Automatic annotation (TrEMBL):
Name of the molecule in the record: Molybdopterin oxidoreductase domain-containing protein
Domain Molybdopterin oxidoreductase: 1-236
Species, as recorded: marine sediment metagenome
Pfam entry (one): Molybdopterin
Cited InterPro entries: Mopterin_OxRdtase, Mopterin_OxRdtase_prok_CS, Prok_molybdopt-oxidoreductase
A biological process term (GO) from this entry: respiratory electron transport chain
Length: 236
């Protein structure tokens, strides 16, 4: 994708035309001069060649976003589920901070999550580096609080993200138990994911569908759909 180039081009216009929120940047941001220097590689002629978006449209979009406040950014999986996904999210965050469209009503960077209740799962700690409520596993006080609540000892180290598991599959990672995930299809490099999953000594998949990943499993376990169990959904 060429999303990063497009967003950098928009930010260059915003900086050159003085449409930034200087007060917000001074109070809330770091390394602005370094960021500003990085924009030099993204003149609109270059960005147009990369993206095929006309220069006047790039400039128009930049001005619309920067001058019609409050402005908000909403994105779905189209900019995240490929190899440049992380860079795209960082670029949208930079665009919002550059114009001060953060932390106020009707502003911000708002992801429209791709699966049902993925927001709720993350809120409840289904992430490798946080407990429920996005409380860091590396914080000793937070760790002690959850150890007391759950009556067990907990590791002070973050777990592995899916992409890290894929890289370690078949080497340091010998066995995987997957529930409701389909990395053989959803990973940025699906072919690579399928190849490394096949190297595992033991793969268990629990799902309501015989997914692409389930077809690679040694054991497939049934699961209950949302309509067959109690619980909550958190809207994006």
């Amino acid at each position: 994708g060429t999303d990063v180039a497009l967003l950098m081009g928009m930010m260059r216009v915003i900086v050159e035309e003085g449409l930034i929120d200087s007060e917000f940047i001074t109070e809330r941001c770091e390394n602005f001069n370094v960021f500003k220097e990085s924009l030099k590689s993204f003149d609109l002629t270059t960005v147009e060649k990369i993206t095929s978006v006309p220069q006047d449209k790039i400039a128009e979009a930049a001005r619309l976003y920067a001058t019609h406040k409050p402005s908000t950014i909403l994105y779905a999986m189209g900019i995240t589920q490929h190899s440049h996904g992380t860079d795209n999210v960082m670029a949208t965050a930079n665009l919002a901070m550059l114009t001060g469209n953060i932390g106020k009503p009707a502003t911000g960077v708002n992801p429209l999550r791709g699966q049902n209740n993925v927001q709720g799962a993350c809120d409840l700690g289904a992430l490798p580096n946080v407990y429920p409520g996005y409380q860091a596993v590396t914080d000793p006080k937070i760790k002690a609080k959850f150890e007391a609540a759950w009556g067990t000892s907990l590791s002070p180290n973050p777990g592995l993200a899916i992409t890290e598991m894929i890289e370690l599959a078949g080497t340091k990672l010998k066995a995987v138990y997957l529930m409701g995930e389909n990395p053989a299809l959803s990973e940025p490099d699906a072919g690579h994911a399928q190849e490394v999953l096949a190297r595992l000594e033991f793969l268990v998949v629990q799902d309501i569908f015989l997914s692409e990943t389930a077809k690679l499993a040694d054991v497939v376990l049934p699961a209950a759909s949302f309509a067959e169990k109690d619980g909550t959904f958190t809207n994006t």
